[in-house]
Amino acid sequence: MVSMTELSKIHNSPESAARLKKRRAAEWRLKAYGILAIVLAGAALITLMWSVVSKASGAFTESYISLPVYLEADEIDPDNTGDPTIIGRANYGGLSKDALKAAFPFVKSRGDKREMYDIISGGAAFELRELAMTTPSVVGQTLDFRFLASDIADLYLKGSYGELIEQNAGGNLTVESSGKTAVVNSSAADFAFVMARLKEDLRGKAAFNRDQAALQENGRAVFVERGDLVEAAKREAERDRLIALAIELEARAAQDGGTEVLDKSSPSVLVRMGETWVKLTAVSATGGEGDVIGTLRNVKLATGDWQVYSQDLPEASRKVSDLQIVLIENLRSAGVVETVFNTRFFTAGDSREPELAGIWGAAVGSFWTMLVTILLAFPIGVMAAVYLEEFAKKNLMNTFIEVNINNLAAVPSIVYGLLGLAVFLGFFGVPRSAPLAGGIVLAVMTLPTIIIASRAAMAAVPPSIRDAALGIGASKLQTAFHHVLPLSMPGILTGTIIGMARALGETAPLIMIGMVAFIVDVPTGITDSATVLPVQIYRWSDFPERAFEARTSAAILVLLVFLVLMNGLAVFLRKRFERRW
Amino acid sequence: MKLFTILAVASIAATSASARDQIRIVGSSTVFPFSTAVAEQFGKTTDFATPVVESTGSGGGMKLFCSGVGVEHPDMTNASRRMKAKEFKLCQDNGVTEVVESVIGYDGIVIANALSGPTFALTLEQIVIALAADGPMPSTWDQVDPSLPAIAIEVLGPPPSSGTRDAFEELVMHEGCELTELVACEGISIREDGVFVEAGENDNLIVSKLEANPNALGVFGFSFLDQNSDVIKGAAIDGVEPTFDNIADGEYEISRSLYYYIKVAHIDVIPGIAEYAAEFSSEAAAGEEGYLTDKGLIPLFEDEFEQNSDRVNGLDLMTGDEWN
């Protein structure tokens, strides 16, 4: 027996205090690790969400350009039948192009016209056709039609291709125009800013040539050492050529004044005079020479009547050309460009044109697929669990089945796709690409999860419930279905929903059964060809067009919303029906 | 009981499958962006249903295409390389005896890096020396040629399952090995010591990896360079820059033809196959100013274009002598 004084001696000894300190430090460290882990996970989640949301914002608005379009009766419906099938046959693409031609009569050359047509979407003509077919009274009239902007015009309006920056223009401008080209001269050094930039570019190019020359010199030295004089002479000549080029560029950069050429790899400089613009091809500090976009006579303009714009991104490095920028800016000044909420994204099926593409087809495909999955997986899974938990005897056979179910839960999902291809498509002849096939495969994939979750939920029901039911004369069947199953439902539902959420995000098994496909039409049943949300995300991310990047992120958000809703439902069901024993 | 339901549903589905009214196309992921554009246009401008286009890869597409005649098999397959003799034989063995071959156009394969990185001008010989598995296996570019920058060789490219990889090996490795004594042509393969990184099938992913690592080079299709020219630049190969015009002129060496194949036995069974093929080989689609060039397709030369149109419209069958 230790006396109290001795005990307190032990507890108050310096060794004891050191041990206590150590234990408390360990506890503090553990807490710190925990907090650190949560902070890291939170930071990763926030980064992911931020990158998705910031990229997706571009997909939630779309741009329209209103232009008057004349629906000539002779072209569309010469006999005035009002019959939609006749009206539908007209060339609406041509009518849309005519609307642009009427708006910009000065665009003449073939290449320029092509660029002009590219600012409205190819889908706009089909919308015009739709309008004429549904309301034949518009035929023969001129109406202001809202043309959907193309992906590049839309991206430009959203600022994806650099900004058009207005520069200070303080002088009076003298313009000498020959119709196609013009010479502009300002009384002030209003173009000095671009000269500075071009000189900087020249110095950069000179430095680049010197770097390349140094590399050639390396080569020369190595080949001289190796004794390969032919190769060495080649490198020497190349080196000298590069150095000569660099010296010339440096001389150009050093001189004051002078004229520099602007080409597709230099920044663009645009002079605006109301609706007419001059795209400069050569520039000095006070003026330059360029191509006229619009119609232009010889004029003198006072300060304020003209502006200078620059676009830092060279024309070669962006999909939107200078001509397109000018046309879009003119339309914007005329107030006919509007940017509205993109309902199309949520109501349309897939398309190869980013501005026409929507998520609805994939969302409906996901719905049908999930419907098939839950109708198959839930009853089969729960019945299997009831049998295994309540009726099956503990013998070797049932242990074997149990081990196999646990194993199946960990099988990579692509394996289920192979199974689906061989058995359901190959043997039973289920149609390829259909939600039916996808649903069956995903049901098989989800079954083990549901069975395991259901068994765990049933095992958690206390034996006293079963004993009481059996004690008052209920059969085993009645016990299972009247008492155990209802009490374990929250757990079963939670497991099922989590399994379904996994199935909703699955793509790998669907590759095999042909659901990784381009399908324009929204599916109307479980045997129509369809695709699902994660497949849509995967496919959009693989297209080269820049505008699909925003749509990919927006589709990810839509999928995340569904996943959050499903997991939220699982939490709700658990809280609502939870029982404590 | 539920199993019976599955069987019942499946058998209903099987009967409904026999009445297919839309064209089914499988095959290459490289041709996919073009094939889908034509499919959408075809669906909008005609009374036929919009075809369903699957992206299965060239090899996978051939396998499905050649698996037999009947509505459960696809009607067409896209390929970023020509059908192989053994695939043609597989077709024959499975009763797919009548096949029409059509060329769509060209696709350039570019080697590019970030705008902020060094500018590369390479020759086929240099690429082969840098990347061949049984060559000198240099670790920096200046070991390949002293006039190249002294930075580590790092090339991101497609995995072996990709048609782009097949074409890269054929057009660069097999062609280039003839030019150098340092690498034996027999059984040439790309090195696997981490210098050539298999970056997956998604070319957008390679582009964003290049942005993050300016010293790395990437191998992918021309349309991705075209769409991302504000962040990456293509390396000149043997002094030729990878531009639309250079590829279309045939100046740029690393370009391949893209194909699709039509199952003639299906033409009278599934509506619209001949019309779809006509749309695909039309001037408005694959011509010099067709909408497919906007998507990055390099059009055929004029005489090839004519020949191809004739072949498709006349349904000239493959004879099996194509590989001799």
Describe the secondary structure blueprint for this structure:
The complex is a heterodimer of chains A (581) and B (324).
Chain A: H1 4-12, H2 14-56, E1 61-70, H3 73-76, H4 84-87, H5 92-103, H6 110-117, H7 123-134, E2 142-148, H8 151-157, E3 164-167, E4 173-177, E5 181-186, H9 192-226, H10 229-254, E6 260-261, E7 268-273, E8 276-283, E9 287-293, E10 299-301, E11 307-311, H11 322-333, E12 337-341, H12 344-347, H13 360-391, H14 396-408, H15 413-427, H16 435-459, H17 463-471, H18 476-504, H19 508-512, E13 517-518, H20 533-541, H21 547-577
Antiparallel strand pairs in A: 1-2, 1-12, 3-11, 4-5, 4-10, 5-9, 6-8, 7-8, 7-11, 8-9
Chain B: H1 2-17, E1 24-27, H2 32-45, E2 52-54, H3 58-65, E3 76-79, H4 85-93, E4 99-114, E5 121-122, H5 124-131, H6 141-144, E6 155-157, H7 163-176, E7 196-198, H8 203-212, E8 217-221, H9 222-227, E9 232-234, E10 236-237, H10 244-249, E11 255-263, H11 273-280, H12 283-286, H13 291-294, H14 302-313
Parallel strand pairs in B: 1-2, 1-3, 5-10, 6-7, 6-8
Antiparallel strand pairs in B: 3-11, 4-8, 4-9, 4-11
- Please report which band the strand proportion of chain A falls in: under 5%, 5-15%, 15-25%, 25-35%, 35-45% or over 45%: 5-15%
CATH class of the largest domain in chain B equals Alpha Beta
Q: Termini distance of chain A? A: 43 Å
Low-confidence stretches of chain B: 10-18
Got a strand count of chain A?
Answer: 13
Measured as a percent range, the helix fraction of chain A is 55-70%
Work out the helix count of chain B.
14
What is the oligomer described by this structure? heterodimer
Q: Biggest interface and which pair forms it?
A: A-B, 58 and 58 residues
Annotation field: number of helices of chain A: 21
Question: Nearest-angstrom radius of gyration of chain A?
Answer: 36 Å
Q: Look at the structure and give the mean pLDDT of chain B.
A: 86
What is the mean predicted local confidence, pLDDT of chain A?
A: 90
Strand content of chain B: 15-25%
Low-pLDDT parts of chain A are none
> Helical residue percent of chain B?
25-40%
